[in-house]
């Protein structure tokens, strides 16, 4: 049986003035998939995922999520279900706990400490690190905690825009293992942009974008 289609793009285009940035994008992403998006710099990858995340509006074509046009969703509710993380996430508050609690606070939900401890394990941190000061974390640890903050309340789709760029090999491996847990254990659909050759070689499904068009991996 075919899995549920989560995101469906039909003839999606994006143009600024007379300049086409994306053209004729046809792509279906099923529930539970892990899609790796790559291609030359300036090819339109960030623009495409920002459209999928409802941070930019397409200028042509159709985009649906779970069978319904994204125009029919409340944008805030949509962005909770389709979460977007980019390269340099920032931390705030004094401690790791402050950051992981934040998604619960804004939704007026009780903090799920058990979920936090499990998620911290994914990224090589422990329950004791909950009360660690943000200023005492390494750059790589900060990146991992910032990513965790985005998935504390499970999104259905996690869009990652070059989140491993600039990380050293150890931190890349932690972020990778975290993404694998989200995908395999939590069933979160992943769309990840990368230029990293090892990540491209290991891709489950590779989609390539060049000059604003899909040149490989589309369905
Ligand atoms: N608002 C805009 N106005 C003009 N040009 C734009 C705008 N947004 C994007 N572009 C152009 O569209 C092209 C695609 O940009 P985008 O950032 O999506 O590419 P990318 O594939 O993510 O690149 P990289 O791999 O370098 O991050 C680039 O040439 C960029 O300059």
TrEMBL record:
InterPro entries found in the cross-reference section: AAA+_ATPase, ABC_transporter-like_ATP-bd, ABC_transporter-like_CS, P-loop_NTPase
Residues of the ABC transporter domain: 7-218
SMART domains: AAA
Alphabetized UniProt keyword annotations: ATP-binding, Nucleotide-binding, Phosphate transport, Transport
UniProt-recorded Gene Ontology molecular function terms: ATP binding
Name of protein: ATP-binding cassette domain-containing protein
Gene source species: Levilactobacillus tujiorum
């Amino acid at each position: 049986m075919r899995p549920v289609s989560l995101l469906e793009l039909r003839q999606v285009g994006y143009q600024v003035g007379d300049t086409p940035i994306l053209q004729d994008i046809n792509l279906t992403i099923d529930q539970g998939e892990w899609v790796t998006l790559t291609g030359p710099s300036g090819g339109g990858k960030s623009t495409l995922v920002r459209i999928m995340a409802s941070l930019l509006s397409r200028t042509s074509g159709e985009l649906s999520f779970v069978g319904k046009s994204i125009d029919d969703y409340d944008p805030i509710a949509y962005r909770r279900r389709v979460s977007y993380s980019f390269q340099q996430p920032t931390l705030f508050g004094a401690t790791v706990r402050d950051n992981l609690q934040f998604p619960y606070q804004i939704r007026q939900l009780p903090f799920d400490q058990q979920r936090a401890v499990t998620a911290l394990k994914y990224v090589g941190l422990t329950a004791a690190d909950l009360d660690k000061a943000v200023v005492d974390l390494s750059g790589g640890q900060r990146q991992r905690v910032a990513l965790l903050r985005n998935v504390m309340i499970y999104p259905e789709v996690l869009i990652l825009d070059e989140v491993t760029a600039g990380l050293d090999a150890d931190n890349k491996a932690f972020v990778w293992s975290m993404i694998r847990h989200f995908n395999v254990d939590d069933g979160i659909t992943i769309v990840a942009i990368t230029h990293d050759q090892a990540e491209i070689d290991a891709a489950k499904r590779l989609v390539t974008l060049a000059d604003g068009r899909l040149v490989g991996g589309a369905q």
